[in-house]
Fold this sequence. Notes:
The complex is a heterodimer of chains A (509) and B (421). By secondary structure, chain A is of the alpha/beta class. Chain A is built from 14 helices and 24 strands. Chain A has one domain. Chain B is α/β, with parallel strands linked by helices and 421 residues long. In chain B, 22% of the residues lie in helices and 40% in strands. Chain B has helices at residues 3-6, 11-23, 32-45, 61-64, 111-116, 132-140, 368-375, 381-398, 403-420, and strands at residues 88-93, 96-97, 106-110, 143-149, 159-178, 183-206, 211-219, 225-234, 239-246, 251-260, 266-275, 280-289, 295-304, 309-318, 326-335, 341-350, 356-364. Chain B has a 17-stranded mixed sheet that branches. Residues 1-5 of chain B have low confidence and may be disordered. The chains are: A alpha/beta (509), B alpha/beta (421). Chain B: This is Fe-S cluster assembly protein SufD.
Amino acid sequence: MPAVQETIEQVRKIDVDQYKYGFETEIETEKAPKGLNEDIIRFISNKKNEPEWMLEWRLEAFRRWLTLEEPTWARVDYPKIDFQDIYYYAAPKNQSGPKSLDEVDPEILKVYEKLGIPLREQEILAGVQKEAAPVGDLSEDEPGDNVYKSGRVAVDAVFDSISVVTTFKEELAKAGVMFCSISEAIREHPELIKKYLGSVVPTSDNYYATLNSAVFTDGSFVFVPKGVRCPMELSTYFRINEKNTGQFERTLIIAEEGAYVSYLEGCTAPQRDENQLHAAVVELVALDDAEIKYSTVQNWYPGDAQGKGGIYNFVTKRGDCRGDRSKISWTQVETGSAITWKYPSCILRGDDSRGEFYSIAVSNGYQQIDSGTKMIHLGKNTSSRIISKGIAAGNSQNTYRGQVSAHRKATNARNFTQCDSLLIGNQCGAHTVPYIEAKNATAQFEHEATTSKISDDQKFYVMQRGIPEEEAIALIVNGFVKEVIQELPMEFAVEAQKLIGISLEGSVG
Amino acid sequence: MNMRAEIQRTPAEAAIVDAFGERLSLLPGDGAIMVKRDDAIEQIKAGLPTRRVESWHYTDLRRLLASVPAFDASAEAKAIAPLLEGSTLLSIVNGVSSATPDLEGVSFQRLGDKLVDGSYAPALVTYGSDDAVGALNTAFVADGYFVDIEAGTQLEKPIELQNIQAGGQSHVRLPVRVGAGSKAIIVERQTGEGVGLVSSVSQLLLGDDAEVLWLIVQDQPETATHLAQFKAELGKNARLTLFVMNAGGKLVRQEVIVKANGEGADFKLRGVNLLAGDSHVDVTMVLDHAVPHTTSTEVVRNVVTGRAKGVFQGRINVHQIAQKTDARMACNTLLLSDDGEFSTKPELEIFADDVACGHGATVTEIDRNHLFYLMARGVDEKTARGLLVRAFLAEVIEELEDETVVDPLEELLGNWFATHG
């Protein structure tokens, strides 16, 4: 049983300090002055060489943001954020949009190397020749050895406020796929940006989305034209490095008629005592017959064992199944962040469109997760499926909050929801808050939720076969989340499995 | 001071506040009771809850409560025969209780008397800023019954607490204390005619090893606003089965707030909600498992026709020390019309690890396969649908087992289908 062995090895290897991406790198940076006002927004816009209309768009969002109040309905608890005490722009010096890899600061390249994200295309090509590692076989289990080494993946690397490099652009361009940083897209493809930016998550959507619209600094832009199946996995790797900075990235993915794209997102940050804010907006648009698969392995720094430090992850992710027969699928593995506030959603506007949400949320220490999804059925014969697995350990609070609604015209809307929670230890909490709203008689909604602990019988069964307690738990947990892991791209699945092992380390007894 | 204070009062809010001023001199009780009333009306003055208040998310009371009828002293209503044969009947007609009967092992008191002498003041509590039902009731409550069942009393006949009115306003409270080891069947009947605003708060204290079957049967007219609260606390090994049937009313909110405070306590909620016309019916439950080794099951079945809107919110809180809790909740809805709506929010809030909790919720129309099965046997569609809907609800009622209880409830169900089917 290689998978089992792998988990066990993984759990054993981890030391007390479980977060392995917590290093910090000294890189000369250029920052905007601390705080937030219209001048800062002009500064960001200017830095990005943005056209006038984009600045106006940002300023309008900012003025709106000033009138909004911070939402408090989520089941998370944190001291009030001082939005004037954050740097809204931090970029490595001499980095006004690099043309080639040679221009990138070698220190930054080292960071990504350390993280295991190859930015040199030849390296990745070498990786192709290497036989793709089968799931579970992780003989070369070096830190940072993950998806990015074993396959051919185009990467957009975002460092603090800017995208430092995007790989495989040329090869993708041959297939007609645009993959670049959003700043570049604003300059190069204004017509697409004007048409789609803010069309899924309007600037007025919510407090953090509005803030993001005002100050977003970078992120990825993907455009897959009609009938094109994107030839490789696309990926963005986010890294917060600078102190006291917020990262506000904006991702926009458009799949035209019949197109297909699979997109991966990864993220890490250094270990720091203070909290850092990450407020992203991700918008997906799928036209007729298009399919977008969006996978996230969220591994921001979760804070230390006493709950000090860590990232506040306040993210708005939404997919719009605009075309008939389109499909959007969200898969997420949440193990990091001090606080997570995130509801990747699907608006099922097109007839026969489909939305999927697969999630594993693991919380330990003093982490707080309030996450889930929304499936808004608007078109006819739309269907959705939600599988959510929450695992709470330590002193953490883990909440699933999800909404399923069928509008009057959404005939034959179907939904199946399953959200299971597992509690490890008696200092943590698991909560389930589903909102189910049917306004159509032909809708068919099913919702199931369970909460339990790992049963003593299960544990006994495994331990009786000579497996120590901690490993037995890891094994049972992996079985519990299997349904979601299966939905991840293969290499990601391995990383996710490892992460779950890491996050639960030390939670026994 | 705050934003809400500046909000323009809705006509209903203004009517309530004005009515309080006018009724003040007529309301029983002074001193401590009056302080409670003042606090409660302050809460109403701050505004009725809107959908932004989480516990009222699907019932925007501020918007839905369009008008409030005035108190009507001339309204005439008469007590009706009790639901279950042989019941001891205590009726409240237009908000006024009558003389109390004699029953061995039970003492009855008119609540008006307990308000006048102030002895009820400590129990006159609201449970939070979103407790609009409790606040409205506390401000205006004038009567009701206090029922005290002595320890070790096995009541053979049911007790029916009947609240009946013919328009106007009526605000009653029904506190019931059941001593250790006692057993009783209690019927809470809420009915009437005309345009009424009714608030009713039932408070049940269940002693150790006591066992109660409590039936709430609400069939107010389609013009009435019915705001009700049922609160219960369960002692050691106490067993409570609460059966709620909503078969009327225009705007109905039935809150169920239960605390399992003693080890071994068991709570069962069975609900049947029949929605027709323009009605808005909301059943909201908050259940606390506060100690180890308690169990609960909730099954709520809803049928929605016409332009009706149905809501079920159920929250199970499992406290940190409440290990070995076993809680199950199910909410099933048949949505039978295109204009009907149903929203449900079954929540679990769990702080103990060694528990087994689950909930399930479904919203569907009638299963086509089932319909086909019957129609293939020569049953016409209308009859087949009727049979399936009845079967869907009967399952919950039949679980009560006791024929003397099941039969009258099924008869009520039949009556509803005769007029709304």
